[in-house]
Each structure stands twice: as C-alpha cells, then as structure tokens.
Amino acid sequence: MINWKKDSTILDIGCADGSMTSKLFKELIPNCKTMTGCDINEDMIRFANEHYASERVNFTTLNIEGEMPVQLREHFHHATSFYALNWCRRQETTFQNIYDIIKDQGSCFAIVVEKFSLFDAYRNLAKTEKWKQWVIDVERYTSPYHDSHDSLKEMQQLLDKIGFAIKKLEHKVIVHDYEKQENIKGGIMAVVPFKIPDELYDDFFMDLSQEMQMFDTKKYNFKKSTNDYFLNVQLLVLYAEKK
Ligand SMILES: C[S@@+](CC[C@H](N)C(=O)[O-])C[C@H]1O[C@@H](n2cnc3c(N)ncnc32)[C@H](O)[C@@H]1O
Known about the structure:
The chain is α/β, with parallel strands linked by helices.
C-alpha cells in the first residue's frame, strides 16, 4: 500500500529512544536514502544518537507542533509516526507541519492512539486524595480523540482541510498479551509520565491497573484487561499523500 520512493528521505516523528526508527530503517524501508528520527525530548535524542545513529540514520530534536525551521520545508519524501501524534494538543498545526515538511507526492503514515483505558484511569486517580499530588496535567497526556464520538470523521475532516489525499484511514484495536504481571507493569509504567515516588510505585501500579481493568471491561467491553495481563489500545491508522 505504501509507495516508498527509492532513495527517499524519511522523517520518523516522536522517535523516542530511536530503537523503532532504526528497526524500521533496517527491516521495512531498506532502500531509502536517509532516515531521520525526531523527538521533542532532548534526552531521548541524545540517547538515540549514541546508540542508533549511523551513516544513513540520524536523530534531531524537533517539536512537531511548534514552528518548523525553514530548511525543513518540503525536505522529506515521507513521514512516519507511531504512538506519538496523540501527544500533540494542536492537531491542525501538527498535521499542517507534516504537510509542509514533505515534498509533493510525498506521504505520511501514522498510528495515533485514539482511546485507551490508561487515560480514563489517569483522570480518576487525579481526583483522589491519595494520588492527586502526583497525577497532574492529565489532559496533556490524553489523546485529543479519547472523548471523540467519531474520531475517523474528525481526522478525515482535518486531513481534507489541510489538503492531504487520504489513502487509508481506519480504526484498529491492538491487544497486547504481556503474559505476566512483571511484564505488564514494566510496559505500563514505562509510559506513565508522572513522577511517582519510588516507595509508592507498586501501590500506584496496583491502583492504576485496577482502574484500567474497570474501564476496559465496563466502558469498552473488552473481555480481558490488566488482571489477565492484557492491554487494549484503540488506534487510528492513517496513510495520506500530499497532492
Ligand atoms: C510513546 S513514544 C513513541 C516512541 C516510538 N515512536 C515507538 O513507537 O516506539 C511517543 C514519543 O513522542 C514524543 N513527542 C511527544 N510530543 C512530541 C512533539 N510535539 N514533537 C515531537 N515528538 C513528540 C515523546 O517525547 C515520546 O518520545
């Protein structure tokens, strides 16, 4: 489906530690010329440069919802982004920036988190006496589509408005089986953005996972959740070309 141009330049947005970007470059897009991973977090970019940079793979700090440097205008053939664009509150600015930095006939492939019981759990814990001191700024970490009644339509209207030609736009659920508590704890706590004191870490995980279990089964009707070491994440998958 994706028309990766030979010798193309690709930007991976929200690359974090760079491991996924490097894997993508090696396994999925072997004939691209260069792959650039970008992230708003400077520490991540430092780590990525130390561990995954090579002659054709590089990493740079960039806020995709900020002002784009002029030299990036129409610079890349393709943009990819995995589980990162849902962090951006200003979706129109974000997708307009992506449109501006890709060349004509270039494309964007993105996986955006739509709904996730983790966000519901954050909201509930933020209201409790026990956790409200640490669980702060919850909306900043919640997907802009989490409360949406028709996120596909919202995304379609946004991409249309900017001028993208939508080639694929669909809703997907991924169910991840972590098999044991230790694994799911590591998986969830790695993405929790709050500074929970070490001595409260286990207690926090227990309360968070209980809330997630409740929302997964009662609000979203998933059969299994954190009690069975399952994570259910609802996603928007999109592939759009610059006309
Ligand atoms: C869950 S991680 C995804 C990591 C990687 N794409 C993967 O799939 O393994 C999301 C990343 O998006 C980054 N991010 C959040 N807002 C951003 C922004 N405005 N511009 C660039 N990166 C951003 C975060 O710093 C974080 O590293």
